[in-house]
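Morning, I've got a small favour to ask if you have a moment. I owe you a coffee for this, so here goes:
>
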Amino acid sequence: MLTARVNDRVMTDDEKLGMCFLLYVAGLDTVTNQLGFMFKHLAEYPEDQQKLREQPELISNAIEEFIRCYGIVNTVRTVTRDVNFHGVNMKSGDLIFLLAAFSGRDNEKFENAATVDYMRKSQSHISFAAGPHRCAGSHLARRELRIALEEWFARVPPFRVKDGETPRTGVGGVLSVFELPIAWS
């Protein structure tokens, strides 16, 4: 970033600071909530947790599967003209909430899309968006998620959702795990 150029000019210090701030803020909610869904899945599917404990070489594939299956980032767009889309009237200025996070659950693109499969061959998903809107921190996020999972497994024994409790999730700009009561022996 120190030597980055925009339209053949060096970025200003304010632009560099703004980019750093964006990466910092964007990485807080996203990585935190992705971890929430990863740990929720592992607490609910002990056989998946055990497989990763026994075969840590699968963790990188697992991270991609968690990101695909539990995409968390959504998009809001403004309607620019009145339109009827599949029977839904939308007016210019309306905000629409696009649940792009669910694209990884498309059975036409992914066989058994709702299943986390550490051996899945196709890992082409748009959970980090695409094109000019692709997440600049996607590589850092993957690394943070992998390290978190490796360190968790090194320190915490097999865990599960606490008996009688239910995880709470919610929808917003980022899908979130609000509460994940876990227990271990």
